[in-house]
Predict the structure.
Amino acid sequence: MSIFSTIAILGYVAALAFVVKGFFRPEGLQRRFIMSFAGIAVIMHGMSLNAAIFTPYGQNLSITNVVSTINWVISLAFTSFMFRLKIVTVVPAVYLCSILSVSILWFLPPEYMTHFDMHPEILVHVALSLVAYSILMISALYAIQLQITQHLLKQKRLVLNAWLPPLLTVEKHVLTLVMLGIVLLSLSLVTGFVFLDQLFGQGIGHKTVLSLLAWLIYVMMLWKHYRYGCTPRAAVIFTLSGGTLLTLAYFGARIVKEFVLV
């Protein structure tokens, strides 16, 4: 394991420890310490990814590298907004997933080589897909937090409620992220139709169908919200359903190819 990965894991562990400790402190989270340790971890995580993906033989977009990249984007987003958002209920899961993704990055290093220098248009499509997926996964985390917050309010657990964001604030974040994710997912689908041959052909047809179904689910969620209102439970169902379809589209066949058919 590289020094970058080691420092990243230690940084995430320290940040996670401060987050968990904050749950039991009357004063709440020590955000400065969390952001400091997590910031170092995110930087080291990024440097590990740079070394793992950009090789002398091309770009290694193995399943472990892609998953780790998505976790890096999510950790970067949550760490960057640590002082602005009360996101305590989902941060432990975010940093724990980052710890696992950095570890798996080096313990399970399969190769899936490509050459973006020969096809830069494909890089645009892949980048849009990864960012769209990351943002929509963040929206799912916020939807889960929305459900947790509502549950705690109903249970009148005032000690924890003091450190949870208002329901309307979380709901606004969910909708904003879903809208942004839909825009990027739409651009990803458009670039796929423009730049890729036989988008419904053998090997990638299931990805196209599942991605379109996920896009439809997110659109239905926004339509339901603006027409009738979307409950926290419905938001969780919609975002997790769309996220599951995108996960199957992006990683289903790759997991079988890289870990099963070896």
